[in-house]
From TrEMBL:
One protein family per Pfam: ENOD93
The protein's name: Early nodulin-93-like
Transmembrane portions of the chain: 38-58, 70-89
InterPro entries: Enod93
Keyword presence, Coiled coil: no
Keywords for this protein: Membrane, Transmembrane, Transmembrane helix
Length: 106
């Protein structure tokens, strides 16, 4: 039985499938890294874009001036906009990269 396992483990088909799995894993890691970078860029841009009107409204509107302190303004800016932008862009980037690669391989 031991001889059967050693010959099946070194079969060309199994070596090819292991190499293919390794290649797919490396590509998946690369796509995820690209998604993280794109998501982080989008979060920074969205945070800056949301910070300007939030801070301006807190200075100009009487209700906002009375009810929103600096901590509330920072929470609105960081949580809502930057978080959403990160996840949306990262997901779209990973999917687009994987889709482009699948078309290139076909």
């Amino acid at each position: 039985m031991a001889a059967t396992n050693s010959t099946s483990a070194s079969s060309p088909l199994e070596k090819t499938s292991l190499a293919s799995l390794d290649q797919k894993l490396v590509m998946a890691k690369r796509y995820a890294h690209e998604g993280v970078k794109a998501g982080a860029r989008a979060a920074v841009v969205a945070g800056i874009a949301a910070a300007i009107p939030t801070v301006a409204s807190a200075r100009m509107l009487p209700w906002a001036r009375a009810h929103l302190n600096h901590a509330a303004q920072a929470l609105i800016i960081s949580t809502a906009v930057a978080g959403a932008a990160y996840f949306i862009v990262a997901d779209k980037t990973v999917l687009a990269t994987a889709r482009n690669n699948s078309f290139n391989q076909a």
